[in-house]
Amino acid sequence: MMLFLARRTAALVVAVLLASFVVFLIPYVTPGDPVRKIIRSRVAGDAVDDSAVQALTAQLGLQDPLWTQYLRWLWRFASGDMGLSYTSRTPVVDQVLPALWVTLSLVVMTLAMAALIAVILGIAAALNEGRTADKAITAVSQAFIAMPEYWLAPMLVLVFALELSVLPSAGWEGPTSAVLPVAVLALRPASHFTSAVREGMLDALGADHVTAARGRGLSYFHTVRKHVIPNGLLPLTTLAAVWFAGLLGGSVIVEVIFAIPGMGRLLFDGVLNSDIPLAQGAVVVVVGLAVLLTTAADLVHGLLNPQVRMRHA
Amino acid sequence: MREGLIIEDLHLSLRAPAGGSPGSSSGPSARPVLSGVGLTVAPGEFVALVGASGSGKTMTALSVLGLLPPQIRAASGAITLGGTDLLAASGAELNRLRGGRIGMLYQQPKRMFNPRMIIGSHLAEPLKLHRGLRGREARAQAVELLSNAGFEDPERVARAYPHQLSGGMAQRAMLAVAMAGQPELLLADEPTSALDKVLERQILELIDTQRRQHGLGVLYITHDLATVSAFADRVVVMDAGRVQEEGPARSVLGAPQTACARELLEACALTRRRIAVAGEALGLAPSRDILALDGVTKRFAKGRGARPALEDVSLSLREGEILGVLGQSGSGKSTLARLLVGVEAPDRGSISRTLPAGDSKNDGGSASRGVPGTAVQLVFQEPHDAFDPRMKLFASLEAPLLRQGTGAADGRREWIRQAVRDVELDPDLLDRYPSQCSGGQLQRLTIARALLLDPAVLICDEATSALDAVTQRKVLDLLLRLHRDRRLSLIMISHDMNVIRYMSHRVAVLYQGALVELAGTSEFFANPQHGHSKDLVAAARAHPAACSDLAACAHRVLGANVAGGRPGTSRPLELVSAPDA
Q1: Which range of residues forms the domain containing residue B449?
Q2: Which of A120, A151, A212, B78 is the most exposed, fewest CB within 10 Å of its CB?
Q3: pLDDT in tens, B176-203
């Protein structure tokens, strides 16, 4: 297990470094001179003074070789200094951390909601395979996928915020403000999770050892509870981790529509305003967290499977 | 009150699939699976239920447990156990019966354990359900059950996960689970068909011990008569959903009355016949080596302490020879096959192929003999895995020819149909998908596919292990005929002593990746040298009561066959009585 952990950690570090290097390169590969971009963002007007460009280049250390710049950037980054936002002139860290907290709570609530729906619907569908309940659940969950967030969100706002006035239409204050965003965001994962749980349960139900459990005299429900559900829900752990990682950066539309001050919103603003330090900081944090979560999911999956657990023991 | 298990006039039928195939409503709505099966198992009696695959043995057993697949239902008949009507039992009653009064063993023991639960937890379930034991008491009882199942370290086994057990250990653990509820009846559905002879013997002895100690009735399902003949009190022979023959083991084995009983006997009497040395039979010049391994080592695992899959193996195949390679699982047999075909390269040592020059073929010298990669062909163990399930069989057989760029489409079609006739199948089968064919048919087709490339050497890697005894016998005889007609050299890789003895001129024994013995077949079976070989030969011989019975009846059966001049299979073979008869 220790070797397994070490290997996964090494892979994780490499992945994060690679991602950070790509992020570091963003200003260099986007069209236009970043230095001019910076100056232009600070002083109104199109004319940029060449001496100002040279001064800033020297100040930022841009005449150094690329890898020196990268290491310097990385070192500053690792010590918590993500630079100053061009637009707000405040440290990026101070914007990223609260935003991350908001997004994390949004995503966790979303996944919990999706998993709850999926476990109930997926198990019900699998146990009624081929019957009306199964077909209805499958149809509904497929309809979930077909509803785009940018359509569903305004619709829900129209109904619940404007017509019925029971929920706030935007913002991030108090538990009621989370209801609509979570509902919109949870629909797609819920749908995917449901079919994953259904398939997993069907596989588990068909396993030979389930027949053997019945042969030992276990009742149908005892068998399902003890031998089918634990095995059938396993695929959900990996899938949920993948969605966790995806939603961290993928909640942009919902955050923008509902004006939620999260990572998606931050990224959106950073890119829109060419605020390179802000965008870089947000992307690196999202990517790092995503890699970390995927690794954690692999570890959990391994821990749940004795064969993997012992092979790496 | 009548005792034991009594099955009377049991009819099972397959429900017509709901909303079945419209248009082609051929046949009656419910197809019979069992037609009037009757059998009894008295307490303390060992009854063998024997039949080829598809004869309805397993369905009979499952109907006793009330675990029939949903599309099959009992149409009429009665099953009682000690006076309890099993067909009329409620769900709760059945739950008490299963694992309580009836224990069950299965064909694939490792797949019958929940992979995420230790063995001890599996044992705890019936102990709690049927005997109300919990906690420390249950743990002590579990350990005792495992120890009765022949484990020397029952505590460790109780803590083990299923994947840590070998097939034989898993079956013994399953026996412990089956005995946990102190059943009066043990249903054993081919529990040893996937195991080698040594382990099979061990399991049978354990079951027999339990039978004697607890007065357990045993219904032992198998396709292999020889296996159970030493243990069974009575033998019931099934075919096509009916009981064909029933009687004391001695009389069924000694004087079988029906054709299917004779066929089963003949199939397990493989050991009784051998062929003359190929060189003489084929009238060839003193044979030369066509495949030779010299000091070959192959290592898959990289870590320290990892044993190579094959270590320093030197071995040769003579032209026109059948070489038997004997070894248990993990001995390196399959690695040897992969090296010989050339899909793996040896780490050390060399493999030389001195293949005969191509016979000029009538289609303009495709002469695949000598083309690297086609002169040695492989036949696999699992015929169902050897074909693409989404391709019609014709396409699967045509694929290797297309790669070789051989001939025009019409000629190719006729050639393939001829190859299928050569393996004694109807060419119309080629329009089917693999799932529509039996294992025996598919195995013949893998042989046909291998022969299409006109190989000089055919390697059969456990090619008949997945087949039942009757089909196995037919496929082996087909291989022998091809060997004779086509001057095909064969390497038969198997763990089955009978197959090796039946087929081979020489026997090579692999043990933990090393070649430990190489000798002529009769010499090997008469006087094995290496310790492991001695174990194997001793296990193969260990059917004491059966052997004399079988020898007598086999002579009668086979003698009749040869005298009757059955076409095809038995002709080229020379009948020799076995050394240990």
Answers
A1: 387-455
A2: A151
A3: 999 999 999 999 988 887 777 778 888 8
